[in-house]
């Protein structure tokens, strides 16, 4: 029922997440933030069971903060993604598995590159130029496959994200009206304008 969309470019990574919190036939709210800041240049977008997403994301964020306190430097996006995957794999083999599907986006200051990691509840992980979670992925992956370029500007990337959300809202039987958008670059984490029906109407 949820949808996450991510794209990594040469010097930034953009992630969008729907803001709907629904259970069974009931929509609880349409302005939920599904982004969790793991460090200064690292963000995790999570879909899945409501309690699991909050608890798991906070657990990972606190452990990454603890690592920085102990060692004096932050984990790179690659190291953070592998740490997250390992924890997800360990919990999968316990009595209390987490039902979460994260997208981890970050900027590596050592290499100067933006990175996006796709992960699911079975703890499979891959670094990808673009990725999507949820039913929305069935509609958006083909659009990104056709129009994505790694050298796109922030405005072009945002326009492509609008096209993806527009297709989800047009084709998907579920109602996902609002999508929060976050950009991660060498300066840090930035919130962009929420993509809603008004924004899509203006872009048309």
Your description of this structure?
There is one protein chain. This protein has a five-stranded antiparallel β-sheet with strand order 10-1-2-11-12. The mean pLDDT is 95. It has five helices and twelve strands. It has helices spanning 50-71, 77-92, 137-147, 154-171, 197-203; strands spanning 4-8, 12-18, 21-23, 26-29, 35-39, 42-48, 100-108, 113-119, 125-127, 130-133, 179-185, 188-195. The two termini are 26 Å apart. The longest helix is centred in the first third of the chain and has 22 residues, at 50-71. It has 204 residues and is an alpha+beta fold. Helix 3 runs antiparallel to helix 4 (154-171) and helix 4 crosses helix 5 (197-203).
């Amino acid at each position: 029922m949820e949808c996450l969309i991510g794209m990594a470019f040469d010097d930034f990574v953009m992630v969008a997440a729907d803001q709907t919190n629904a259970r069974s036939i009931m929509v609880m709210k349409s302005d939920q933030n599904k982004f969790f800041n793991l460090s200064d240049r690292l963000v995790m977008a999570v879909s899945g069971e409501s309690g699991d997403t909050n608890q798991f994301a906070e657990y990972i964020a606190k452990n990454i903060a603890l690592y920085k306190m102990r060692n004096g430097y932050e984990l790179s996006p690659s190291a953070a993604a592998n740490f997250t995957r390992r924890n997800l794999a360990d919990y999968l083999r316990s009595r209390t598995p987490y039902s979460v599907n994260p997208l981890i986006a970050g900027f590596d200051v050592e290499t100067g590159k933006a990175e996006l990691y796709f992960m699911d509840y079975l703890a499979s992980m891959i670094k990808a130029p673009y990725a999507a979670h949820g039913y929305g992925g069935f509609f958006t992956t083909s659009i990104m496959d056709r129009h994505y370029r790694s050298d796109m500007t922030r405005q072009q990337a945002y326009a492509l994200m609008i096209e993806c959300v527009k297709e989800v809202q047009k084709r998907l039987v579920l109602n996902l009206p609002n999508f929060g958008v976050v950009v991660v670059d060498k300066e840090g984490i930035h919130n962009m304008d929420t993509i809603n029906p008004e924004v899509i109407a203006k872009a048309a």
